[in-house]
Design brief:
By secondary structure, this protein is mainly alpha-helical. It contains 18 helices and 12 strands.
Length: about 400
């Protein structure tokens, strides 16, 4: 067994502890200082789960070749897993984020051009229009839960257009996306596996039908069109095509909703910075980067299993162990950022890891930035008296992401 020296007084990192997910930053700071590559085991002799807290180690581990994404599925499918878990895992095994080279590069190449920086920048005006449409609905009300009325629908509508999904289907797409994130983010139970498995099955059937329909119609230059091109070239199987489209919706939705929700919440709790952004809209780009750093939408990523032993921060990780880089901690690392707990939209030391690093770095990073900038610009323009509502904002239990359950505001 891999000996894990105890770090006196530091305890075990437990993301399920409400004290951690309501305010993780003091906890991260303790682990960065005392046990930056920290092992948790469910029982002695079981494989370890390694949490990586420092920025430099996160970069190192995410660039390591000694890790396998695909191993997760082989392990799940090999064990005595319940049916719903097996089904769920089989579907996810077609997602690029869960694949190793060379399959990963093949899947990513099929849709990469849709998310290239110039293509993403070209979506700025359309994103602004959708933001305005949503705000038209709430401006007369004077108050709203900004998560429900704006932060969730905006990225869903944008990514649906980018993929080529009919707009009228968005309430169903929202339900499927929520079922998936409920499972990935909460304590997993059989009921959650079943619910997410059912959502994934229904989405899968929906996409197969849509692919058939689009094959019979004219070619369109959206992600669906690119996936069909790749099918014709023989670069994707039908399962890969469906998996890729599904991943794009799930990966592009809640992450960006959390950027918007967390960003608004942070601005409202830092009125000086909100005022500064209103006075100097030219700071929007660095403000969005600072929001991504300060309240990172994805806090932790599960990046698969160790394939070959490797050493990190003086610890030896062995085959079968899992590795979890804590991006939210890396982005508050005092070794990289000056006064890391200060929210400062004029910061220039913005080497944050909010979109990950290495070959699996976020494919939609530029689109997310474009959406964030358009969303905050529209909110500042249309809601000049924006302030926190009477009820406090509430964080949701989130094992991987940082997400608000509600964000009551008045304006
Ligand atoms: C603020 C919003 C976003 C954040 C914080 C974010 C964050 C991330 C992170 C941390 C990863 C790496 C995951 C890992 O290594 O396991 C990732 C991967 C990915 N993201 Fe995003 N993301 C955002 C928005 C988007 C959008 C709008 C899309 C558009 C479809 C997208 C598509 C993807 C895809 C396809 C991957 C997998 C890439 C690969 O495996 O090669 N993301 N994202």
């Amino acid at each position: 067994m891999n000996a894990v020296p105890a770090s006196p007084g530091i305890g075990t990192f437990d993301q399920r502890d409400p004290a951690v997910w309501t305010d993780p930053y003091p906890v991260y700071a303790r682990f960065r200082a005392a046990d930056p590559v920290h092992c948790v085991r469910s029982a002695p002799g079981e494989p370890g789960v390694w949490y990586v807290f420092r920025h430099a180690d996160v970069l190192k581990v995410r660039r390591s070749r000694g890790l396998s994404r695909a191993a997760r599925h082989r392990r799940l499918c090999a064990g005595p897993a319940p049916d719903s878990l097996f089904r769920y895992s089989e579907k996810l095994s077609h997602w690029m984020v869960e694949r190793d080279a060379p399959d990963h590069a093949r899947l990513r190449a099929a849709v990469a051009e849709v998310f290239a920086p110039d293509a993403a920048r070209a979506l700025a005006a359309r994103t602004g229009e959708i933001a305005d449409e949503l705000l038209d609905g709430i401006v007369p009300l004077g108050r709203a839960d900004l998560m429900t009325a704006f932060a969730f629908p905006l990225p869903l509508l944008v990514i649906s257009e980018v993929i080529g999904l009919p707009r009228e289907d968005w309430p169903t797409l929202l339900r499927w996306s929520r079922a998936f994130s409920e499972l990935e983010n909460r304590r997993p139970t059989l009921a959650l596996y079943t619910e997410a498995g059912d959502a994934i099955d229904a989405f899968d059937a929906y996409l197969r039908e849509l692919l058939g329909h689009r094959r019979r119609g004219p070619r369109r230059d959206d992600a669906l069109g690119r996936v069909l091109d790749a099918r014709r070239r023989g670069a994707l199987t039908e399962d890969d095509a469906v998996g890729t489209l599904m991943l794009l919706l799930f990966a592009g939705h809640e992450t960006t909703a959390n950027l918007i929700g967390n960003g608004v919440h942070t601005l409202l709790s830092h009125p000086g910075q909100l005022r500064l952004l209103r006075e100097r809209p030219g700071l929007m780009e660095s403000a969005v980067e600072e929001m991504l750093r300060y309240e990172s939408p994805v806090q932790t990523v599960s990046i698969g299993h160790v394939r070959e032993p490797f050493t990190l921060g003086g610890r030896t990780l062995l085959p079968g162990d899992r590795v979890m880089p804590v991006l939210g901690s890396a982005n508050r690392d005092e070794r990289v950022f000056s006064a890391p707990d200060r929210f400062d939209i004029t910061r220039s030391d913005l080497r944050h890891a909010a979109f990950g690093t290495g070959v699996h770095t976020c494919l939609g990073a530029m689109l997310a930035r474009v959406e964030g900038r358009a969303a905050f610009s529209a909110l500042l323009r249309r809601l000049p008296g924006l302030r926190a509502g009477d009820a406090p904002a509430r964080w949701r239990e989130g094992l991987l992401t940082r997400e608000l359950a509600e964000l009551p505001v008045t304006f």
